[in-house]
Amino acid sequence: ATPTAIMAATGQAARRGIYIRNGEALETASGLTVLVFDKTGTVTEGRPVVSHFVSQPDFDANDVLALVAAAEAGSEHHLARSVVDYARSRGIEPQPVDDFSAEIGRGIRARIGRHVVLVGSASYLAEEGVAVQVPSLDGQTPVLAAIDGTFAALFGISDRPRPTSAAAIARLHDLGIRTIMVTGDVAAAAHPIAAEVGIPEVVAQASPARKQEIVAELRAAGESVGMIGDGINDAPALAAADVGFAIGTGTDVAIEAAPVTLVNGDIAKVAEMIELSRKTMRIIR
Ligand code: ADP
Ligand code: MG
């Protein structure tokens, strides 16, 4: 590999919105056999919208919404922003909280005055000892809220695939690359999105550690693995991959964990980079 050819290709990539931090990533990309995709904010736009909200009978809807919005205002998760937007659309401004912690890949916990508010997946609330019921939400992502240990409200949230995702996946398949979606979301929400964009394999309800483990297992099985993600929850998997691709509009933690940044977040750029890498490696071998 001549350094000049690598530098030229890196410059060419940068002009197309693909920032490559080291020459090794460019070289390795030519041999990738599997690409693992995060869902929310990677395959989808990451602008989810609350389309369903019901508070439990013993709770006042606006009171619950005010507490949940206050709690979620401290989170940079896409789902959290959609909840805050929804509350604002109903005239509720998030109030300050006394204490906040993010449980990455699960949800958040906040203390607001005398109340403790948990917001997150059904499994997170269940693990925290909250009795929950989740009705089928027709493919939406369920987000649940508990106040002082009692299930208080359910949100159904949906996010559209990026308009370029289906073509990007098809192009990767044309290049002979296997694609897998690995998401923290539930299967009922993940499968319709995967089907819509043409990703044949789906692993749902994957924790950040599980995402990393899946990348490591694929590598141990002899695959050369690319990982594409945008969230704090994707950082361990991005770092464990042969080549990590961070969505440029995503979190700083993801960008720091990956040698490649897709500046405008277009996952079609992954196929472009692989083609450029293959071309470069043919020239310089
Ligand atoms: P993904 O892999 O789709 O990016 P995450 O690993 O970030 O998802 O989150 C997994 C699940 O945890 C979400 O689908 C949601 O149910 C829950 N969750 C995580 N963070 C939050 C939050 N701030 N607010 C509500 N739910 C959350
Ligand atoms: Mg994500």
From TrEMBL:
Localization annotation: Cell membrane
Superkingdom: Bacteria
Family: Belongs to the cation transport ATPase (P-type) (TC 3.A.3) family. Type IB subfamily.
Protein name: ATPase P
Native source species: Paramagnetospirillum marisnigri
Coverage span on the entire protein: 470 to 754 of 803
